[in-house]
Amino acid sequence: MVNVGIIGGAGYTAGELLRILIWHPQANISFVQSTSHMGHLISDVHRDLLDETDLVFSQADYKAIDVLFICSGHGKTKLFLEENNLPETVKIIDLSTDFRPRTNNKGFVYGLPEINRDKIVTADKIANPGCFATCIELGLLPLASANQLTEEVHVNAITGSTGAGQNPTSTSHFSWKNNNVSVYKAFTHQHLEEITETVLQLQPNFDKEINFIPVRGNFSRGIMATIYTDCDWTLEEAVEKYKIYYQNHPFVSISSITPDVKQVVNTNKCVLYLEKHGRKLMIISVIDNLLKGASGQAVQNMNLLFGMPEILGLGLKPIGF
User: Which domains does the chain have, with CATH numbers?
Assistant: First the structure.
């Protein structure tokens, strides 16, 4: 049994994490900490958990846990680790951007199992990937692994409103978001750095631009990324290469039919679809931003850290466990 602590327990990612861990057969939630809700029932904040748990938000006891999930806002994990001395035996899974870039990783392993599974298994600290980054990287990894990214990559990706977090802003409240779509952070999104670094991990000679246009959608959850670049493979070759790359990665599926966001919402799956148009290979990638793009992937990483089946507690049936 793995004893779990959660810091920053009131947000969307923590809510999804709790929903998974409450029913995870090998996880015990030791504490959930939230400075704004201390002493309150977790189910009063995450109301979908009514009658599923009687846990309350409480003080952290780091000596009682094996792994700590940090679900605080971006920039806060660095501060937290500076102010708190955790036992050396406690593993960390951070869901912020703080330690994803290689130049500032402080010993954190980038937690995308489809490229770093072997490193994750032996790690002590995991930087959980961003949601856009996960969706886009999974669309590009088979190309990078075959040294096939020879031209610029173009990405248009739309995300649900939960990607902006729980605290309302001028562009996330209902009256603005409803019946509306908008572009933001074109060519400058913060996930571009980790996407580029991940591509370079497989294809070190890649020196072209990744042109990324993020879009705010008027739906709650999910990401659809449409990616295209020049590629010499035929469609049949591309599909075969993608299937081979992901044959041992249980949460990535190659579809012969154009996917949609509803296909992956409330799952830890990524569904990929390929088309060829002249020299252009188009890849459509869809994930749930709160699960494969955040909390589901974090539990996937926890499973790997503690020698459990990668899929345990995430909706697929483990064999022989």
Answer: 2-128+294-305 (3.40.50.720), 131-287 (3.30.360.10)
E strands present in the chain: 2-7, 27-33, 67-70, 91-94, 109-110, 125-127, 153-159, 182-183, 210-216, 223-230, 252-255, 270-277, 280-287
Q: Would you call 131 a catalytic residue per the annotation?
A: yes
SS3 at position 252? strand
- Cβ–Cβ < 8 Å for 306, 243: no
The verdict on pTM exceeding 0.90 is: yes
Q: What is the pLDDT of residues 284-308, one digit of tens each?
A: 999 999 999 999 999 999 999 999 9
What stretch of H or E contains 190? none
From the list 71, 131, 135, 270, the catalytic residue is 131
Q: Considering only CA atoms, which of 118, 26, 34 is closest in space to residue 69?
A: 34
CA distances for 157 relative to 28, 225, 267, 280, 285, angstroms? 36, 4, 19, 18, 9
Q: Which of 56, 58, 28 is nearest to 43 (CA)?
A: 56
CB 261 within 8 A of CB 225: no
